Amino acid sequence: MIAQNSGSIVTLGSIAGMGAFPLRAYSPSKTAIMRLTQILAVDMGRFGVHVNGVAPTYVLSSTIKSRIDVGLRDPNRIRKAGALEMFTLPEYTAEVINFLCSDAAAAITGTMIPVEVGLEAATIYKLYAGDLSWETDS
Amino acid sequence: MISVGGSGIGAATAVNMANKGWHPELIDANESGMAEVASQIANSSIRGDCYVADVTDNQALNNLANKIESDNGPVEALVTPDGIINNSQTILEMDVKEHDRVWDVNYFGTIHTIRAFAQ
Lengths: 138, 119
Fold this sequence. Notes:
heterodimer, A: 138 residues, alpha/beta, Rossmann fold, B: 119 residues, 4-stranded parallel sheet, 4 helices, 12% strand
């Protein structure tokens, strides 16, 4: 890429790297990738190489499905955590990666794009302990 | 483009980008997973090449990068490993080898892949 003076690198971060998350190796490894992505973006920017990342929330991959199946993850908690109250699929993150590798992202580097169904927006919001008239327990 | 992953996001990215005209080359230690992804890519009439490699092996990745570039020309896009998830034991209770393995794949695997393919 450096020899060609062009290219796109997309790293895989995670929302688990954006705050304290109780996976003691995974979470800090993803935080490190977020910072590495920024450093590489500057190191390689002058060679025309873009370096960005994506940070998904729980993706309904075979790994997570198998943990749900044996009761190690609560699918309802995952679904209710974000603003959109939905599961994400690998395909949604793939679409963002494709964008970051495309000419449409020509002016973007050093970013870590969250693909997290509004998790950050919802985290403090859903901490509210009063009554939300529109909310049900479903 | 290179996508590290015969499953999950890496696999979905290879299929997605093949559908948009990219020529994906997959790297993973999981040969059967990659073969399944390659068969999905074949439906889009674009060839998806598979290479078995361990992302924790710096030298193997360098050799692979030389081979891929010599066979197919310069790599235009690289998607690094998604990584592995450990269990949630506390720092004091956890298996140190398991901890190191997560860093080897997730962090050092990312560095090794970028060093090999971004030259």
